[in-house]
């Protein structure tokens, strides 16, 4: 039976919106990550059979199939194709699933899966050009923005503003500790950002975490979506710029090339969920992927559940019965940022490295997605 392994994975540092990566075109940024991935893997670019990148706002510099243009910029031969996909916040995680499926089917042996998003240069919703939802959709469902969905989740699960802010503070503390401890150093490809007078600034550290973030500071922020609500800029994910990618192979091909894979993909799933609550999908996706893998949540050593808003991982913990000490142990999107199309493989890369660092076996990744969907993936570290 064919088996899909992850040979290598890298990511860019994540920049704040209008921060250190604001002068970097997203196609150029993705190209740097693709090139860095292949350099670390140590194999010929000509061996790659497809490049699948997630990107949510596919307009402007992110339009025109950025997977293909980034591959050409990165120096891949012109016969290596590329395709860009949008499954909202889980786009690059879905890229991994599609790549794995191609390998399992026997169509391919080597695929790159990843994603990119510059929320500075290509603002969120710019691809919508002001279009409103179809009346045929709104006749069937109440379509609201994700911030209001997060408000409803907080209300339904009974989370207070203090609980959400306390979770956000922990995210910043964990992220800052991870950076200071060098936990992210091995997975990051540094980016040379163009500056004035033909000079470059080297960016190698995530820009999002704010040292000294406290509950008292966050308590002073006004609600962002509902005047009487609990969701603020402080307990929601940051708009960010970034790119990430993993190199997938059949285990047979990795052995043939003399490569030592980092992990195997054990199980994958994607689900639809209530498009009004929108962000609860990781709960059902986790139940489904655990069943596919034949594992219990107690057997999973680390979980990455994207921190789109603080109620999302908290509701997940509540319903799944997970261990909070295994969740987002090095911080999440509240502190580190959420470059939409890149987040899936960014978190996967970090999960792989965390399993290596902690000498652990199983990792789970789950991400909520716009309009009510979620992907979940379980990996096993290979020693």
Automatic annotation (TrEMBL):
The active site is at residues 89, 338, 368. The keyword Transferase applies. Pfam families: Thiolase_C, Thiolase_N. Residues 259-381 form the Thiolase C-terminal domain. GO terms for molecular function: acetyl-CoA C-acyltransferase activity. The keyword Transferase applies. Belongs to the thiolase-like superfamily. Thiolase family. This is Thiolase family protein. It comes from Planococcus maritimus.
């Amino acid at each position: 039976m064919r088996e899909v392994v992850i040979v290598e994975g890298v990511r860019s540092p994540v920049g704040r919106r209008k921060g250190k990566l604001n002068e970097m075109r997203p196609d150029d940024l993705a190209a740097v990550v693709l090139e860095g991935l292949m350099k670390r893997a140590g194999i010929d670019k000509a061996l790659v059979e497809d490049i699948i990148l997630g990107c949510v706002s596919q307009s402007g510099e992110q339009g025109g199939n950025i997977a293909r243009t980034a591959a050409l910029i990165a120096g891949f031969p012109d016969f290596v194709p590329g395709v860009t996909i949008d499954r909202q916040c889980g786009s690059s995680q879905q890229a991994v699933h599609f790549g794995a499926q191609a390998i399992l089917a026997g169509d391919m042996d080597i695929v790159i899966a990843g994603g990119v998003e510059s929320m500075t240069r290509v603002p969120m919703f710019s691809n919508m050009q002001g279009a409103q939802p179809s009346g045929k959709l709104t006749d069937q469902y109440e379509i609201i923005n994700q911030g209001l969905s997060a408000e409803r989740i907080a209300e339904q699960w009974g989370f207070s503003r203090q609980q959400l802010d306390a979770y956000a503070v922990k995210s910043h503390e964990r992220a800052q500790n991870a950076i200071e401890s060098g936990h992210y150093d091995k997975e990051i490809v540094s980016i040379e950002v163009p500056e004035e007078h033909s000079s470059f600034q080297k960016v190698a550290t995530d820009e999002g975490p704010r040292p000294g973030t406290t509950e008292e500071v966050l308590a002073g922020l006004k609600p962002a979506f509902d005047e009487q609500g609990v969701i603020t800029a402080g307990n929601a994910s940051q708009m960010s710029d970034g790119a990430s990618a993993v190199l997938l192979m059949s285990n047979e091909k990795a052995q043939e090339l003399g490569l030592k894979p980092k992990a195997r993909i054990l199980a994958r799933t994607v689900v639809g969920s209530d498009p009004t609550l929108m962000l609860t999908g990781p709960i059902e996706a986790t139940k489904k992927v655990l069943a596919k893998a034949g594992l219990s949540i107690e057997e999973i050593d680390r979980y990455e559940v994207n921190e789109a808003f603080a109620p999302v991982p908290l509701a997940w913990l509540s319903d799944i019965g997970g261990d909070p000490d295994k969740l987002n142990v090095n911080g999440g999107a509240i502190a580190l940022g959420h470059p939409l199309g890149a987040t899936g493989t960014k978190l996967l890369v970090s999960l792989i490295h965390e399993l290596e660092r902690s000498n652990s076996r199983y990792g789970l990744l789950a991400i909520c997605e716009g309009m009510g969907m979620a992907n979940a993936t379980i990996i096993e570290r290979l020693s």
